[in-house]
Amino acid sequence: MPCYEVNLISVEFKVNNRKWLEAALKECGFTYWKTHSRGNVIEDVTFRIKLDTGVVEMDRNPNTAYKVNQLKQAYTKQAVMEAARKHKWAVKMNSTSKMELRRY
Fold first, then answer.
1. Who has the most CB within 10 Å: 33, 72, 74, 80?
2. Closest of 7, 73, 17 to residue 42, by C-alpha
3. Alpha-carbon distance 80 to 92, whole Å?
């Protein structure tokens, strides 16, 4: 029986805008680095994002899944904020995960 085992799972995370992703990583306070030797990859200590396929590889630790979900929310927030700026909408944050957009 092995005394040490690493289990990985993968999650699809469609990353279309690298600028939004890097802003979301900074907002979440993650330390990350870009790996070009493995392809177009952004890595954190506990997960790896393959930008060409949009797949996130991570271990099975529940804390890692929480971090990836936090990153997804921050990425979505970046996309919404960009759309709001582009279309001149007013943005009101109702909670950490709910936003209200209005156009006057």
1. 74
2. 17
3. 11
Token couple for 22: 């890097």
Which domains can be identified in the chain, with CATH numbers? 8-102 (3.30.310)
Per-residue confidence of the chain (104 residues) as pLDDT tens digits? 556 555 555 566 777 788 888 898 899 888 777 776 666 778 777 788 887 777 788 877 777 888 888 888 888 889 889 989 998 989 888 887 788 888 87
Encoded tokens for 82: 């960009």
Residue 33, C-beta contacts closer than 8 angstroms, at least 6 positions apart: 42, 43
Identity (one letter) of the amino acid at 81? Answer: M
- The helix (run of H) or strand (run of E) holding residue 26 is helix 18-28
Q: What ranges make up the beta strands (E) of 23-98? A: 33-35, 41-43, 47-50, 55-59, 90-93
